[in-house]
C-alpha cells in the first residue's frame, strides 16, 4: 500500500473524533482501502433423510469498518509518539476531556466511541465503538533515540445502530436506494448519445 493523500483542492481532511476523550484526530494521509462489512447470519437446520438443510434467517451481525492509516512524523527527538498516543488512547478506557484534566479511569469505565464517516458512503458522521487499534512501527523508521517515526495504524470500528445519527442515516439510505435504481438506466441511455456510460 503506497502513501495516499487527497489530490484535489478544498478537500475535507481525513478525521476521526474521539467522543469519549473529546479529541480530534486528523491526518494529511488517507487510508489506502476502507472495508465495510456486515455478517448475514443464517441457520442451516439438518433434517434426517432430507437432501438439503432448510435455511432460516436469524438476524444480522454488526456493521464493521476497518482500515489502515499511515502515521508519519520525521522528528529526530520524539518521533511520532505524540500523534501515536491519540490512537492508542482509543484502545484504553475513556478518561474524559483530556484538555481539562487527566484523570484515572474507574474499573468499569467503557472504551471510547468515535464519530466517523470518511470513505464509508455515509451521508452523516456516525457513532462507532472502537473494536481494534493496532500499531505496526516500521523498523527502518526509528530515530536515533529509539522512537518510531512511521507507524501503520490498523483500526476496526463497530457501528452503533442504536444511536439517533444512525436513524437519520437510515432515512437517507431509503431515499438513496430509490434514486440509485434510476442511475444505471440513465447512464445507458446517455451512452447512446455521448458514448461514455460512466
Descriptive account of the structure:
The protein is of the alpha+beta class and 198 residues long. It folds into 2 domains: 149 residues, Elongation Factor Tu (Ef-tu), domain 3, CATH 2.40.30; 36 residues, no CATH class. The protein is 19% helix and 33% strand. The protein contains 3 helices and 7 strands. A 7-stranded antiparallel sheet has the order 2-1-5-6-7-4-3. A hairpin with a 4-residue loop joins strand 1 and strand 2. The longest helix is centred in the C-terminal third of the chain and has 17 residues. The chain is extended and about 65 Å long. The mean pLDDT is 83.
Number of strands: 7
Query: Main sheet, how many strands, which sense, barrel?
Result: 7 strands, antiparallel
Q: Give the C-level CATH assignment of the largest domain.
A: Mainly Beta
Percent of sequence in beta strands: 25-35%
Low-confidence stretches: none
Distance between the termini: 27 Å
Shape, per Cα inertia axes? extended
Structural class designation: alpha+beta
CATH architecture assignment of the largest domain: Beta Barrel
Helix content: 10-25%
Comma- or semicolon-separated keywords:
198 residues, alpha+beta, Elongation Factor Tu (Ef-tu), domain 3, 2 domains, seven-stranded antiparallel beta sheet
Amino acid at each position: 500500500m503506497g502513501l495516499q493523500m487527497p489530490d484535489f483542492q478544498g478537500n475535507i481532511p481525513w478525521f476521526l473524533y474521539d467522543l469519549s476523550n473529546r479529541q480530534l484526530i486528523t491526518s494529511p494521509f488517507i487510508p489506502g482501502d476502507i472495508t465495510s462489512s456486515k455478517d448475514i447470519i443464517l441457520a442451516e437446520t439438518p433434517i434426517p433423510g432430507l437432501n438439503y438443510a432448510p435455511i432460516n434467517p436469524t438476524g444480522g451481525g454488526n456493521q464493521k469498518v476497518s482500515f489502515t492509516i499511515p502515521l508519519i512524523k520525521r522528528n529526530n527527538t520524539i518521533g511520532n509518539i505524540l500523534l501515536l498516543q491519540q490512537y492508542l488512547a482509543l484502545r484504553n478506557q475513556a478518561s474524559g476531556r483530556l484538555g481539562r484534566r487527566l484523570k484515572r479511569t474507574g474499573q468499569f469505565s467503557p472504551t471510547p466511541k468515535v464519530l466517523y464517516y470518511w470513505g464509508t458512503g455515509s451521508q452523516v458522521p456516525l457513532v462507532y465503538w472502537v473494536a481494534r487499534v493496532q500499531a505496526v512501527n516500521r523498523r527502518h523508521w526509528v530515530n536515533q533515540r529509539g522512537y518510531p517515526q512511521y507507524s501503520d495504524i490498523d483500526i476496526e470500528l463497530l457501528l452503533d445502530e442504536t444511536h439517533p445519527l444512525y436513524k437519520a442515516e437510515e432515512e437517507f439510505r431509503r431515499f438513496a436506494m430509490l434514486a440509485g435504481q434510476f442511475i444505471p438506466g440513465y447512464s445507458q441511455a446517455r451512452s447512446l448519445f455521448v458514448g461514455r456510460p460512466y
